[in-house]
Amino acid sequence: MDAANSRKRLLLKVIVLGDSGVGKTSLMNQYVYKRFSLQYKATIGADFVTKELQIDDKLVTLQVWDTAGQERFQSLGAAFYRGADCCALVYDVNVAKSFESLNNWHDEFLRQADPPSPESFPFVLLGNKIDVDGGHSRAVTEKRATEWCASKGNVPYFETSAKEDLNVDEAFLCAAKIAQTAG
Ligand code: GTP
Ligand code: MG
Fold it and tell me: What angle, 0 to 180 degrees and rounded to 10, lies between the N-to-C axes of helices 24-33 and 168-179?
């Protein structure tokens, strides 16, 4: 890359998907504003936050789109998904059903986004709420999650807590890095 290109600002769009209540909004609030609330307020429709990042020699504006997990609040069409550079899937490690929904979110994203090479589209997986009950209420093992990731073509995996701010920066930084590889 030449000097002019390396100074270019890059806008990367990441879409966060997963069942209602897994902590999508909380993860984004922790990542961008460093705040957390135990109060649950369902996301309606979709909204984005941005964060400026320096990745190697590039200035990146990361645009992270929060979406509604509750079906009745979902309002995103295919046109919206189509601009995505990365999809971050989130489940709650204490709720098996939220893990079992991942295939649906994954396939539905690809169906709507319709990227040129779906088999290599960058996904990242976040297993959230690892802080709950000191890990005693876990319903999905790390092994099960990493096997799922392997089955989808080496999807990077992070175990996170939006509450305790564990691995949140790392997960979104990874999303930003792999987003650069999207066609
Ligand atoms: P929808 O907007 O309905 O799709 O839900 P969401 O995925 O955005 O979930 P949200 O971030 O609103 O979090 C749901 C609830 O879980 C809230 O009460 C949060 O405080 C709580 N929560 C989120 N992340 C964590 C976490 O890491 N640990 C704990 N203990 N609670 C969390
Ligand atoms: Mg939300």
Answer: 90
Write down the ipTM of this complex.
0.99
> How many other C-beta atoms can be found within 10 angstroms of the C-beta atom of residue 121?
23
Which pTM does this prediction carry?
Answer: 0.95
Residue nearest to atom 20 of ligand 1 (CA): 38
Place of tokens 């997963």: 18
Q: Tokens at residue 140, please?
A: 């999905």
| 44, 38 contact by CB (below 8 A) | no
pLDDT tens-place string over residues 73-105: 776 667 778 889 999 999 999 999 999 999 999
**Could you read off the pLDDT of 2-31 as tens digits, one per residue?**
455 555 679 999 999 999 999 999 999 999
What is the C-alpha separation between 108 and 104, in angstroms, rounded?
6
Helix (H, G, I), strand (E, B) or coil at 163: coil
Distance from Cα 23 to the centre of ligand 2, integer Å: 7
Nearest CA to ligand 1 atom 18: 40
**Angle ∠(62,68,71) on CA atoms, nearest 5:** 150
Q: Are 74 and 104 in contact (CB under 8 A)?
A: no
